Amino acid sequence: MKMTDISKRLQEVNDILSASCAQKGLSFDEALCLSLFYRGFKDTNALVEEAEMLAGKDAPRLHGLALSLFSEAERYLTLDKTAMSATDYAALFESRLKPLEERFQEAKAEASALWRIYSDMGNRLDYLPVDSEEYKSLEKECDKAKEEYDRAHTKANQLYDVWTQERDRNFCVWSFKPVFMDVLVSRLRGIAESITSDLERMKEGKP
């Protein structure tokens, strides 16, 4: 549930911002934590709907969660965000992916070279008599070349999967904007404040 996780996740964000005051920018892992928080909780409508459901089941628990969220949101809004604002998130994303892309491209080039060798052998076989010794010898070499190509091709595919999975998983860093985070946390603060006020009115029997 988003309501049960959000305060802890925002605390992690706040701890990063608090520790980064003297830094010129955030590390990739720090930026990832912030961007994952934004991606996970930007749908505030879903959070409100969940709070409404929880209010009918366990109002005291919701009250505690809302107070905790309000406290962490207040803390966020008072923290120095210089490092967060100075970070080049697109550059962090690209530098994270570059080694993985390079490994894939190297493996792809190796596989392509092996394919050309195998293909050339296959073409030569087409012009040799099937029952000749040269054909039999070349056929063995061709089979070996095919095995080498298959291994290289499999390795290239695996490295491609690693690269693209990492790209898709961390794309939120590339698209992260600090101003969006500020707007989100301000909105979360208002939601937490409203939930707290509503629950307290209900407890007092007020409409």
Summarize the structure.
The chain is mainly alpha-helical and 207 residues long. The chain folds into two domains: 2-88 and 175-203, no CATH class; 101-172.
Structure characteristics:
mainly alpha
Write up this protein.
This protein has eight helices and no strands. By secondary structure, the protein is an all-alpha fold. The chain folds into two domains: 2-88 and 175-203, no CATH class; 101-172. The radius of gyration is 28 Å and the shape is elongated. The model has no long low-confidence stretch (mean pLDDT 93).
β-strand amount: under 5%
Q: What is the radius of gyration computed over CA atoms, rounded to a whole number of angstroms?
A: 28 Å
Q: Could you give the distance between the termini? A: 28 Å
The structural class is mainly alpha
Helix content: over 70%
Number of domains: 2
- Note the total helix count: 8
Q: What is the residue-mean pLDDT, rounded to a whole number? A: 93
Shape descriptor reads elongated
Write the layout of secondary structure elements.
Layout: H1 2-19, H2 28-41, H3 44-57, H4 59-78, H5 82-86, H6 89-125, H7 133-175, H8 178-203
Helix pairs in contact: 1-2, 1-4, 2-7, 3-4, 3-8, 4-8, 6-7
